[in-house]
Amino acid sequence: MSNAVRLSGHSGSSSQALVSGAPRRYNETVGAPALPQEPMRILVVDDDPPSVKMTAFLLREEGYEVLTAPNGREALRLLERELPDLVLLDVMMPGLDGFETLKQIRGRYGIPVIFLSAKGETADRVMGLELGADDYLAKPFEPAELLARVKAVLRRTEAYALGSDAADRIEAAGIRLDPLTNRAELPGGRVVELTPIECRLLHCLMRNAGRVLTHDQLLNSVWGPNYGGYPNQIAVYMRRLRTKIEKNPDEPVHLVTVRGVGYRFEMD
Asked: Which of 65, 97, 101, 105 shows a CA-CA span of 20 to 30 A to 133?
């Protein structure tokens, strides 16, 4: 196996991206007239009617199509019929809470998820991120901040759907990563499922193999410019990635911490 990093593009990426919950709004036929844009659909899952009403109003004012569900079980049933571009998910709901709902979503779909919760302690944020949420916003929040977070997550998803270096398959150190399926094939053939954020983070590190990337560089590349993030946010995702990628997560070979600076993907 060569130590080179290999990139390979996808063909027909728009139809494949649909499966992972990416936007479905573009006519990509060369030379074809532009078609009207279909609004992005956002599913709001919350058992508090006033919160749902306010959030739905804000989103509709920005031109989004809004679907709602009062609890986790109804949200999962709705996801079987619809494929929204984003889920806004409350944590404290009766029956199936937000954390359990996210676990089931991640087992079936690659749709981005933002937690909106009154549980704003660091431990709650970390748990949400560890379960695979794309972002976590504590209530009460400013409407402008919610809309900014929504736009940032959808912009990242859209960039991957439309194709770029970050949407190409990549191979390094015997690990083959496919961003459109969010799967990594490890040496020996074992395939692991990744969340969208885990996949983007691993892709960023792999395509910069051997180079140290700072906390800010990773936030800008994976979450987007001007995203502040939370303390230890990168560390949470790196810990999850190591449990999936490394033979011994406590002694990583590829996903290496450069203390006080950032992280590096090491080749064999």
From this structure: 65
